[in-house]
Specification:
Strand content: 25-35%
CATH architecture: 3-Layer(aba) Sandwich
CATH class: Alpha Beta
Number of helices: 5
């Protein structure tokens, strides 16, 4: 199989290579949406809680792949800023009200340090939801990510810094329709490790 072609514009912006192309992501998101419906569509309300800002693209596509009624309620957690490693998780907005008796799915674009997921799982777990699941597009292959409970994973990826499809570096690259590897030298970071 041929490697996905990296558009020239993104090469010029410091993208090293395509890790997951648009078609591969779309197919997997459809599978995750169908799986959620199969597991949760029992007449109770389903509430997707995307973690802002990165998960919004993934969550919108995931919701469209679920042929049932779904409520969408956003939560904001900061963890990266202008860094390439998580700086810890801090929730900066209110949790959705009235989750008791509902199926709740925390949706995040990437599971890296696990801090965001652990924080939200603990706080939302205290709100008497019927069920609580975590669905991430990407899970890095590192000890912290692998030891964080997560019911649904789109793709396991190497422990490298990626951008695109909602993932950013310092606010940029979220609009790439694929997930790509950022050349750290191009942003003045040298090599990681």
């Amino acid at each position: 199989m041929n490697a996905p072609v990296l558009p020239g514009y993104w090469q010029e912006q410091g993208i090293e290579r395509v890790l997951l192309d648009e078609a591969t992501i779309a197919a997997r998101v459809r599978e995750l949406g169908e799986q959620l419906c199969n597991e949760l569509d029992d007449g109770r309300e389903i509430v997707l809680i995307p973690v802002l800002t990165g998960a919004i693209i993934f969550a919108a596509d995931l919701m469209r792949a679920m042929p049932t009624r779904v409520r969408f309620s956003l939560v904001s957690v900061a963890s990266y800023g202008a860094a390439i490693t998580s700086q810890g998780a801090v929730r900066s907005g209110a949790l959705p009200a009235n989750l008791a008796g509902k199926h709740v799915v925390i949706v995040d674009e990437i599971l890296d340090s696990g801090a965001t997921i652990r924080l939200l799982r603990k706080e939302i777990g205290e709100l008497n939801a019927q069920s609580l699941r975590v669905c991430v597009l990407l899970r890095k292959q590192n000890e912290k990510a692998l030891s964080t409970p997560c019911e649904m994973v789109g793709f396991d990826i190497p422990d490298i810094f990626v951008v695109g499809y909602g993932l950013d570096y310092d606010g940029s690259f979220r609009n790439m329709p694929f997930v790509g590897v950022l050349n750290l030298a191009s942003i003045g970071m040298g090599s990681k490790g």
